[in-house]
Write a structure and sequence with these properties.
Blueprint lengths: L2 E5 L4 H12 L3 E6 L8 H5 L7 E4 L5 H11 L3 E4 L6 H6 L1 H22 L4 E7 L6 H4 L16 H20 L3 E6 L2 E2 L8 H13 L6 E3 L5 E2 L2 E2 H11 L8 E3 L5 E2 H11 L8 E3 L17 H6 L8 H20 L14 H10 L1
Parallel strand pairs: 1-2, 1-4, 2-3, 4-5, 5-6, 6-11, 7-10, 8-13
Antiparallel strand pairs: 9-12
């Protein structure tokens, strides 16, 4: 049985990847940050919490990273953990640089010294392209295009991308970069625009909210479906040779299109509810990002199956269902009283 270690297993991608690997027969381990309020609702939502082995770890602490590798003894490491919100990176640029960037070196160095045969996946990002999407006239971006980051988050990820390539070439570690464009789902955090829009549209349709405040409506992104993107991560580590891949849909849609589609699903006119709020504008904003996934299709056999309209439909309908259940007096599956207790985590950790 193969073993996998997922950093950031409590996030959207981590939870979907855990389920995917469990279905493949893997023994799955995952690191998480110890918080006063546990954040395991996604694992519970996908009904995999009791099937994974959880290890507390701090990406700023090399010792805890080494300990996680010793406990899990993984065949594959998927490094997904990061400070992953672009807007917040402007507010905490130093912390973002450490957690999102330097932590990659800590993990790779720990792998080099303790388990050099382990395969390593790094979650790079389309945000590394940044302004390139504007300079090239909005054309699809591939693995050969240059990077022009426009946020501390993107700069930190770019460091992670290059250090991954350096360890691959200098030490022969099987290390790959997944340059993933935006990928969404009902498990996305509320701070991300797709989930924010879907959530507020559902509340407005049920009379629980009156308006939706957003920033730049003209920004365009390439939005895909997260469960499909984690499959691409796995495929990258099953190849004979390590390489880097763009994962995308090849289609760009604006925030305005997102809003129009979401409100249309519940039969409302978005113009009556959406307000542009300057507080949600970033100091620098990437105007357009769209990816070319042809290399991934050719070399690892991956291509997107869920397109924009279906993605937004999935997200809005899920939010409507959640809030309707709440109105009936049912608890959300991620409500605090239903979180697995810290004692359950500690008990399981002691058995490992």
């Amino acid at each position: 049985m193969k073993k996998a270690l997922i950093t950031g297993i409590t996030g959207q991608d981590g939870a979907y990847l855990a389920k995917f690997l469990l279905d493949k027969g893997y023994d799955v381990y995952g690191t998480y940050r110890r918080l006063s309020t546990p954040n395991f609702w996604r694992l519970e939502y996908l009904e995999v919490f009791d099937k994974v082995n959880l290890i507390p770890a701090d990406l700023s602490d090399t010792g805890s990273i080494v300990e996680a590798l010793k406990i899990s003894q993984p065949d594959e490491v998927y490094h997904l953990a990061a400070q992953s919100f672009v807007g917040a990176s402007f507010e905490t640029p130093v912390a973002t640089g450490d957690v999102t960037g330097l932590a990659v070196t800590r993990i790779l160095e720990a792998i080099r010294q303790t388990c050099p045969e382990t395969k390593f996946y790094f979650a790079a990002t389309s945000e590394m392209f940044g302004k390139t999407g504007l300079l090239n006239g909005g054309k699809s971006l591939n693995e050969g295009d240059f990077f022009y980051p426009m946020s501390p988050y993107a700069a930190a990820k770019l460091y992670g991308y290059w250090i991954t390539r350096i360890y691959r070439e200098a030490y022969g570690i099987f290390a790959v970069n997944g340059i993933l464009f935006n990928h969404e789902s009902p498990l996305r955090g509320l701070e991300f625009v797709t989930r924010k829009v879907a959530n507020e549209v559902a509340k407005i349709s049920l009379g629980l909210s009156k308006e939706l405040r957003l920033g730049n409506l003209e920004a365009k992104r390439d939005w895909g479906y997260a469960p499909e993107y984690v499959e691409a991560m796995w495929l990258m580590l099953q190849q004979k040779e390590p390489d880097d891949y763009v994962i995308a849909t090849g289609e760009a849609h604006s925030v305005k299109e997102l809003v129009e589609k979401a409100f249309g699903i519940v039969g409302l006119d978005w113009k009556e509810y959406v307000k542009v709020d300057r507080r949600f504008f970033r100091p620098l904003d990437v105007p357009c990002l769209v990816g070319d996934y042809s290399k991934a299709k050719r070399k690892i056999g991956w291509e997107p199956r869920t397109r924009f309209d279906k993605l937004i439909e999935i997200m809005v309908e899920e939010e409507v269902d959640r809030w309707e259940r709440w109105l009936r007096g049912e608890r959300f599956p991620w409500d605090a009283p239903n979180y697995p207790s810290e004692n359950r985590i500690l008990t399981r950790a002691l058995r490992m």
